[in-house]
Amino acid sequence: MPETSGSSGRTPETHVIDFRAAEQLLNARDPRGAVKLLDGVIAAHPENTAARLLRARAFFASAQLRPAELEFTIVLEREPDNAFAHFALGRTYERQGRHDQAKRHFRLAAALDPNPEYLKAARFDS
Which windows of the sequence hold TPR repeats (predicted)? Predict the structure, then answer.
């Protein structure tokens, strides 16, 4: 009998499948469906930063900005050099009208990775 995690009867392999399906749902513009799948993955594996980052992106895409902010913050606590997470948190703050906080994270993203999109958002010239 395969080893299961928790009482849900879900196997680690099932969580990988759910993660991949959530990626596909997000790409297909169904962020709420992605969040539903990722909730189970994160409940079973709260330490999984990749799943948290994907869920943060899904929250952002569905305009659930406070949950997105929380997830991006958790990712950055674990990976403070994650340029994408800084950039995405900056976008989240920007959509909330929190421009000073957004600018700080845009600049951190650009300092970590000179991606043209990050540099443009950082507005170093202003």
Answer: 83-116
Cβ atoms of 89 and 108 closer than 8 Å: no
Q: What was the pLDDT predicted at 9?
A: 65
56: CB partners within 8 A, 6+ apart: 67, 68, 71, 72, 75, 85, 88
Sign of the alpha-carbon torsion through 98, 104, 105, 106: positive
**Closest-CA residue to 14 (of 56, 52, 45):** 45
The β-bridge partners of 112 are none
Residue 85 has pLDDT above 60, yes or no: yes
Residue 4 one-letter amino acid: T
Say what percent of the chain tops pLDDT 90: 87
Closest CA to 79 of 64, 91, 89: 89
**Where are the alpha helices (H) located in 1-126, listed in sequence order?**
12-27, 31-44, 49-61, 65-78, 83-95, 99-112, 116-122
